[in-house]
Structures are given as structure tokens and as C-alpha cells.
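Fold this sequence, please.
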Amino acid sequence: MTWTVILAKFPAKDQDKIAATIRAMADDPFSGDIIKLEGENNRWRRRVGGYRIFFTIDTSLSTVAVNAIVRRTSTTY
């Protein structure tokens, strides 16, 4: 399943913003509003409006793996 199929589950107004952020992460995953998750070895989150993109970075392979895209609520973390 590609990330474009996953994006179809989100409102149309948010799809472009999330897609642009994922494309930008390919060039520089450390830009933007990111935070390393506490207690996790290599997990990060990036804020995109009301959504959070959870991802891992493999510097040896130069890859970013998006683990989840979720709407921010009081129980997101």
C-alpha cells in the first residue's frame, strides 16, 4: 500500500499539506516541527497542522519510514 492510498482516508484539504510534508522529509527529515519520542531509540514525530507523522530514520540507508499518520487528539501520545 502506498502513502497516496493512505492519504485518501484524510480530508481533501489536509491531503496536500501532508503529502508535501512527506515529500520534503525525503530531502531533510530533520526540518520542520519534529521531536524525538521519549523512551524510543529512533522514533520521531513531525507536526503537520492537526496531524502527527510518526517515523523512523535509517541514516545508513538514507531512508525515512513513515510508521503512522494520525489526527492529533488528547490520546495521540
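DSSP finds two helices and four strands in the chain. The mean pLDDT is 87.
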